[in-house]
Specification:
With 153 residues, the chain is mostly helical. It has helices at residues 2-13, 16-28, 30-37, 42-61, 65-81, 86-99, 106-148.
Length: 153
């Protein structure tokens, strides 16, 4: 599925041969094949990040409500799937900021973009708060374990 998503993304960004090449490269990459064989979240996160990028391309080109929904939902799902998906969100925001000058109605677009980012943050915030608390707890637990490492009980 990730290969198909990459193919559609490549076709949306360039043309059909580029999409086919993107799908072929992703389908034969050792890294992707390895992850696809594991029962973990990595391949799902890759699919959701690809859908997020595809939604961003649709927003940039057409700006339909369907593209906005695809972008927001897939980005939220990617963040809930793997924290490292935040890197995709950062890159997408940098892309928008760099190319914002090319947008005709940039103020309206920026307002819509900020609303989408706010919705993503609002939906992800409860999990982020819980994750930070859990990370602190794990950090303190590992520090305590290290302190007790040399103690004979």
């Amino acid at each position: 599925m990730v290969g198909r998503g990459a193919g559609r993304l490549g076709r949306a960004l360039s043309d059909r041969p580029t999409g086919i090449l993107a799908a072929l490269l992703l389908a034969t990459a050792r890294f992707t094949l390895w992850w696809s064989q594991e029962m973990r979240m990595y391949i799902l996160a890759a699919l959701l990040a690809t859908l997020s990028l595809w939604g961003l391309v649709g927003i940039w080109r057409r700006g339909r409500a369907r593209d906005w929904v695809l972008y927001v939902v897939s980005t939220i799902a990617a963040l809930y799937t793997l924290y490292l998906s935040a890197s995709v969100l950062v890159i997408e925001n940098l892309f928008v900021l760099l190319l914002l000058r090319r947008q005709r109605e940039w103020r309206r677009f920026l307002l819509s973009w900020a609303a989408a980012q706010g919705a993503i943050l609002l939906v992800f915030l409860p999990w982020l708060i819980l994750a930070v608390q859990r990370m602190r707890c794990l950090l303190y637990t590992s520090d305590a374990a290290e302190e007790l490492d040399g103690v004979d009980l």
